[in-house]
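[audit] Reproducing an earlier prediction to check determinism. Same input, same settings, fresh worker. If the tokens differ from the archived copy the diff job will pick it up downstream; this log only records the rerun itself.
[audit] input (193 residues):
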Amino acid sequence: MKPLSCSDEVLTAEEQCRLLVSVATDRDRQAFALLFKHFAPRLKTFLMRSGMPANVAEELAQETLLTVWHKASFFDPSRAGVSTWIFTVARNIRIDYQRRERRPKPVETDPSDEPDAPPSSENIMMASERDLRVRKALHGLSEEQVTIIQLSFFNEKPHSEIARDLGIPLGTVKSRVRLAMNRLRTLLGDASS
């Protein structure tokens, strides 16, 4: 048997097979180092040609060769050559990497995203009483103030749209809203006593 070294940078198919069998049977680190030296740059080039960035290609090439170290005993020379087997491992690792990258990352749940608990009967009753008080207080406002409050708060229209709909200046809308809200607060304050 020849010694486990190669004078050339290129390993023949027989040398590749002999080195891989030595890794599989003896866990020979020197044989693996020679396979690594031969295949690492070739795998990186192969992965870059398939669209991987250089840093990812290098990482995947190293992962491929680590897999070769761990699974060398699975190599069957009657089914494929060493080079074919190693590049198939690299292709599968690349596909797995691409699948992982396409998968959406899990989103951390935000407590504010949780649905609110249904209101209790007490809260429903209090809201109903508050609505009744507001409706009574609205009767204490002028007709133009009620219109402004309804458009602004109940219909949720922007002030500029209210000004356009009523044909009045924007400043007038804002002052009427402010005056109506102050009056409403006064009426609601009197109603709570």
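[audit] rerun output stored. Observation attached for the diff report: Residues 1-8 have pLDDT under 50 and may be disordered.
[audit] end
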